[in-house]
Design brief:
This protein has a single domain (3-206), classed as Rossmann fold. 53% of the residues lie in helices and 12% in strands. The N and C termini lie close together (7 Å). It is of the alpha/beta class. It is globular and about 50 Å long.
Length: 207
């Protein structure tokens, strides 16, 4: 199989599992394009905090809306999780994601429903996960490093609330695709997790 004909890697998983880091590393390693689909929902969520309706925000989303540094705040993360549960928002963003995935040269997409809904025909499907406490610790250290005043307890509660919403929503709930290979990063060094993902993609390309 030639990656020039289009090769899609779908990576799903909960917040702070490491899927974004692994996705970026895979894209760099293989020269694929990368899309963090969570940014789409964060950008929509950020717009709703400014008073736009979720559907209006999703339909009017522009590429430069994904570049704001404000998209990584806890408030935007919560707003993103809320709008991601709305079928009309998800429907408005599906075509953008599928067009990106179909581009020549290969693409890596990470999110919550890439392997199950957006790209069910992806050549590689990964589900990256980790214990909630481990993920909360990672996110807490990330936010504290940016100077945000949060407590670990607040971050853990946020992670657990997002998990409940993402896994419990009626439309495109977070779950592994049937064919997805699971990578649990709870006790893995990121280099080992990336190496495991690279091997899986390379095997599929070789075959």
């Amino acid at each position: 199989m030639s990656v020039t004909t289009g090769f899609t890697v779908a990576i799903d998983g909960p917040a702070a599992s490491g899927k974004g880091t692994i996705s970026k590393a895979l894209a760099r390693h293989f020269g694929f394009a990368h899309l963090d689909t969570g940014l789409l929902y964060r950008a929509v969520g950020a717009k709703t905090l400014l008073g736009e309706s979720p559907e209006e925000a999703a339909r009017g989303l522009r590429a430069d809306d994904l570049e704001s540094d404000d998209l990584r705040t806890p408030e935007v993360a919560q707003a993103a999780s809320r709008v991601a549960a709305l079928p009309e928002v998800r429907a408005a963003l599906v075509n953008f994601q599928r067009s990106f995935a179909a581009r020549a040269g290969g693409a890596v997409l990470d999110g919550r429903d890439i392997g199950t809904v957006i790209c069910p025909g992806a050549q590689v499907k990964l589900f990256v996960t980790a214990d909630a406490v481990v993920r909360a610790r990672r996110r807490f250290e990330e936010l504290a490093g940016k100077g945000l005043k949060v407590t670990f307890e607040e971050v853990l509660a946020d992670v657990q609330a997002r998990d409940a919403r993402d896994m419990g929503r009626a439309d495109a709930p977070l779950k592994p695709a049937d064919e997805a290979v699971q990578i649990d990063t709870s006790d893995m060094a990121i280099a080992d997790a990336v190496a495991a993902a690279v091997r899986l993609v390379q095997e599929k390309i070789d075959n």
